[in-house]
Design goal:
Chains A, B: It is found in: Cytoplasm. 2 copies of one chain form a homodimer. The first copy, chain A, is an alpha/beta fold. Chain A has helices spanning about 1-5, 10-25, 30-45, 50-65, 70-75, 80-95, 130-145, 160-175, 190-195, 210-220, 245-255, 270-290, 295-305, 315-320, 335-345, 360-365; strands spanning about 100-105, 115-120, 125-130, 150, 180-185, 205-210, 235-240, 265-270, 290-295, 310, 325-330, 350-355, 370-375, 395, 405, 410-425. Chain A has 2 domains: about 1-230 and about 400-420, Aldehyde Dehydrogenase, Chain A, domain 1, CATH 3.40.605.10; about 235-385, Aldehyde Dehydrogenase, Chain A, domain 2, CATH 3.40.309. In chain A, strands 10-9-11-8-7-12-13 form a 7-stranded parallel sheet, sandwiched between helices. The radius of gyration of chain A is 24 Å and the shape is globular. Strand 16 of chain A pairs parallel with strand 13 (about 370-375) of chain B, so a sheet runs across the interface.
């Protein structure tokens, strides 16, 4: 067994405790898991002062270190925010239970009864940045789906996460579950992340939530299976037969409604046949929304004649996930050329076509290979809550296991239960 | 783009050609894919002589190298075997098309229409051993599910695989598809396998088919997502309330019907309450089937009093996937102790319980976390054909994406298609 050859460390010990706890949690019925979630919601409210006090330490340190105010804001917990987190946990209780759902079943010709049943994954590791709400959110979704969770947040939120996890652990014990179904990964060093990524056989899946560089590191170094999430270089393609007003509204909404998130658009591609009409109006609408355009020569020419500024786009722009009020922009000779551009540069998150032409919509949705393809709708709709999943652990941009917004079913595996009465193979 | 920083090699070039071909293949309707499969079946029959001649070279080399006769047998192609392979391709044509199947769909409160649709994975890499039939079988399943395939067989079957892939490529072109939907990975060196494992972004999934050491290497070194297949340390647990004759029949069938395959049993666990009756009869039945028992002290004691030989079992035996006429054997004090043993040593493939007790069956299936759990049936039933899937690309022993026998749906991903009429987020 290769696991026993690896030197034991606090991280591996924690993973082993999670594994044992997961075995107890997996067969626990919904009532037990929901009771644990209710205990968590109640404890968060009851112990909000303690949590906010611990958080104040993290916030003071972050400010002293000159951290950007937007990051400090995400880090900050107030009594109101803790109450909102507790309310989110109550919402998770109400969601349908994925565990035990029969995916398919049949009686085989020899009389064997076959059932494929959803089961928890086991131990889920989450690596994330300085957002303490993720600590509770991820733990709640893992508990609901019967998984033990190993949480590895940012060291800048360590005091907050320690306080939150103490509350969570006390609450699950009250509901009769082992405390180790929820654990913070011990240690604040980089090595503890590396050990978590190497704990194959102890941890069933790692979900990195955060920036592109974090995700790239985990994907490249982890021997534990990874679900890649959240990198979104999303495209809006305005077809030759787009309604101009619809296209403008969707473009501006996709780009500027909330530029810092993964489902915001980063590139607009416009069919040459509509460029003369569309580009001047798009430049005006984007300027009004405060968006800087990085355009190809066609966009630059139109900008010149209409007195607007367009920065010249390079390959770096086509590849960029700006997450800011910037957009790359090109004119393409055809729908197929738009698809080619998307194939070359997209991260496979979300692409939208704006068109009144049914054949164009059909061709675009068939040829574009991304987690979500929008027809006459904003890229901003790729989201677990918007899709009606009630919860979201992340948005997968990979093709294995889960693709697109991941809800509770995506936190499960399956097993086959086969029942006979003495069946043997001839 | 990290891909462009990696030095270009023949393997990466092949993967890039596969990627381009996959984009053409993905939107091809079933009729085109089925026509390609029919052309393959016909070409295999028409060009059987050419294939058998190339294979004869591999076989001669293997014999000269002193290869075991069982391995030479698996390597060998005859006109009859080629005809059987062609017939298997015809069977794949008849299977339901997984591509385009709508997995779920709804109309969201805002009127957006959401559909989750099955799509091909893209480029599938298969790494396998000296069985030329896998070349055709894997290519046929990938084509049927709309995927381009990169085949990396054993160098000892290189001439056979080269001949087979030439036939396959000619056939798919005849059906109007690009030849590069089927490719042999260039090069026979270990480095070419390493390059394949590092072609993240070009190859969507790697499926290693073969021995435990091959699979371990791929799992540890690949940055391309891997589906682990086929390691089977399977257990038969004989409960206190088992019918003795049923238990004997299932035990012997699980172990000895075909010991060389992954769903054969490798360990038998017997409840202490039935050991006095069961062990002497089990020793007799296993001896008759030619099986060597590696037992704990209880089995050794019974062997002593009944004049049979039982080798002492060590931790190595509990961990072993013998794939031979050997079995590890222990007596356990309870069902829960059997579950503990399985949790400690199983590879998570298949475990069986033999019992007349409904509560014991229910507890065992709830607590055992393996791809398949059998109740009163042989472990040998964990198999795509037996499960009625009509085809099998392997048996997954991991929890992500696919678990247990993998048929055509497991060779697909999904995408969300979302249709509106100008929807934007407020």
């Amino acid at each position: 067994m290769s696991a026993s050859e690896t030197p034991d460390t606090p991280v591996r010990q924690a993973a082993r405790r999670a594994r044992t706890a997961a075995a107890d949690l997996a067969p626990a019925p919904r009532t037990t898991r929901d009771a644990a979630l209710l205990a968590i919601a109640e404890a968060l409210t009851a112990r909000a002062d303690e949590i906010v006090a611990a958080n104040a330490g993290d916030v003071a340190k972050a400010r002293a270190a000159g951290t950007a105010e937007s990051v400090v804001d995400r880090l900050t917990l107030t009594p109101e925010r803790v109450a909102a987190i507790a309310s989110d946990v109550r919402d998770v209780i109400a969601l349908p239970d994925p565990v035990g759902e029969v995916q398919r079943g049949s009686t085989l010709p020899n009389g064997l009864e076959l059932r494929q049943v959803r089961v928890p994954l086991g131990v889920v590791g989450i690596i994330y940045e300085a957002r303490p709400n993720v600590t509770v959110d991820a733990a709640a979704l893992c508990l609901k789906s019967g998984n033990a969770v190993l949480l590895r947040g940012s060291s800048s939120a360590h005091a907050s996460n320690t306080a939150l996890v103490a509350v969570l652990r006390d609450a699950v014990v009250k509901a009769g579950l082992p405390a180790d179904v929820v654990q913070l990964v011990p240690g604040e060093s980089r090595e503890s992340v590396t050990e978590l990524m190497r704990a194959r056989g102890l941890v069933d899946v790692l979900i990195p939530r955060g920036g592109a560089s974090l995700i790239k590191t985990v994907v490249e170094q982890s021997t534990v299976p990874v679900i890649e999430t959240g990198t979104g270089n999303c495209h809006v393609y305005v077809d030759e037969r787009a309604d101009i007003d619809t296209a403008l509204a969707i473009l501006v909404n996709s780009k500027a409604q909330r530029p810092s998130v993964c489902n915001a658009a980063e590139t607009v591609l416009v069919h040459a046949g509509i460029a003369d009409t569309f580009l001047p109006r798009a430049l005006e609408a984007l300027a009004e929304a405060g968006v800087t355009v990085h355009g190809d020569s066609a966009w630059q020419t139109v900008a010149g004649t209409s007195g607007r500024t367009v920065l010249p786009a390079t390959d770096e722009d086509w590849a960029s996930e700006y997450l800011s009020y910037d957009i790359a922009a090109a004119v393409v000779p055809s729908l197929d050329a738009a698809v080619e551009h998307i194939r070359a540069w997209s991260s496979g998150h979300t692409e939208a076509i704006i068109t009144a032409d049914a054949a164009a919509a059909r061709r675009f949705t068939a040829l574009v290979d991304s987690a979500a393809v929008m027809v006459n709708a904003s890229t901003r709709f790729t989201d677990g809550a918007q899709f009606g999943f009630g919860a979201e652990i992340g948005i997968s941009t990979q093709k294995l296991h889960a693709r697109g917004p991941m809800g509770l079913p995506e936190l499960t595996s399956t097993k086959y239960v086969v029942t006979g009465d003495g069946h043997i193979r001839e």
